[in-house]
Amino acid sequence: MKMFSLKPLIKPGITTFILMLVIYLGIWTVNILLLPEFNQPDIAWRHNNWPQLIYLLMLMLLITLNSILIRRFVLHFSLIRTKSFLPVLIFLAFSVVWSGMRTDLFPHLFLTVFLVCIELFLGMYRNRSAVEAAFLGSLLISFTSLYHPLYLIVFPILWLGWSILKSLSLRSWLASLTGMAVPWIFYSAWSWHQGVEITFSPEFSQLSSPAISSAGIPRSLIIYSSVLIFLTIACLFGLFSKLLDDSIQTRKNIYILTITLLFIFTFSTLYPPFSRLFFPLMAFLIAVLMAHPLTLRKSIIYPLIFLLFSAVNILYLIAQHLQLYS
């Protein structure tokens, strides 16, 4: 019996690529039309009173842009030693299956900014004088925190990443603090000029009381999350078992992505109300880390992992539609 090969998906031809694109757009459109996320009061477009069509077009453009940036990021830093379309494919799969990624615009915008900044930060490898990259990247991320202050929590993990890259110095850290403070200084000045009272963000006060509970969570989501965690751990095991085949810089970059994923996953687990803010970022991290062994390892286990990954995402998507009639 011939082993199933991922090669057509790793390096898809024009026909395969067009077919995947048509399938993706079809599923995404059906989900938008049938699944009732836009009836929920916490969807961002309702608070901005934007026309729904314009909002969806902007969302599609951001997902497309992020897909291009993910492919550029993987190729630029040689995270996978061969050209692979799997990181983009896995990310797009999450964008149609995860309800938090289908209709929330600003988390996708944060991912766009993060992808631009992570290229700046990883380019600081062994350069303790890279204050320009430290300042500019921190400035961009801090701008996104004006939309939601909890985006500031990524800074400690970024500084830890600089330490791994041997690029953390007092100069780069102070440049990062300055970049982080500048948007808030201007915002505070504008608020003072407008006579708006500035108060401590209530979101930060909620961080003192983490809540881990499965109450109210659909059983299908619990099963899906459990299987996805298992598959991610299996891929991480395959990745790290052969990580010495990669260059030192690539290994350090993968360490940073893995630590960031663990940090974001832990935060989302402890504070479920804020998890949607980081869904696109988490999808990007999982996609890149899973794609590494799925692309490079030749064992029959990894095609089976991909088949199981595809099956569980399809079943979970079907379960979301079935819940409409239950």
Q: What do these coordinates show?
A:
By secondary structure, the chain is an all-alpha fold. It has a domain at 8-37 and 49-104 and 218-325. Helix content is 71%, strand content 0%. The longest helix has 25 residues, at 52-76. It has 15 helices and no strands.
Topology of helices and strands:
Blueprint: H1 7-10, H2 14-34, H3 44-48, H4 52-76, H5 86-97, H6 99-102, H7 105-122, H8 131-145, H9 154-164, H10 170-194, H11 202-206, H12 219-241, H13 248-270, H14 279-296, H15 301-322
Helix pairs in contact: 2-5, 4-5, 4-7, 5-14, 5-15, 7-8, 7-14, 8-10, 9-13, 12-14, 12-15, 13-14
Summary tags:
326 residues; mainly alpha
Silhouette: globular
User: How many beta-strand runs?
Assistant: 0
**Level of helix content?**
over 70%
Low-confidence stretches: 41-47
The ordered H/E elements are HHHHHHHHHHHHHHH
Mean pLDDT: 87
Terminal CA distance reads 41 Å
* Approximate strand percentage: under 5%
Rg (CA only): 20 Å
Structural class by secondary-structure content: mainly alpha
Quickly describe the structure.
This protein has helices spanning 7-10, 14-34, 44-48, 52-76, 86-97, 99-102, 105-122, 131-145, 154-164, 170-194, 202-206, 219-241, 248-270, 279-296, 301-322.
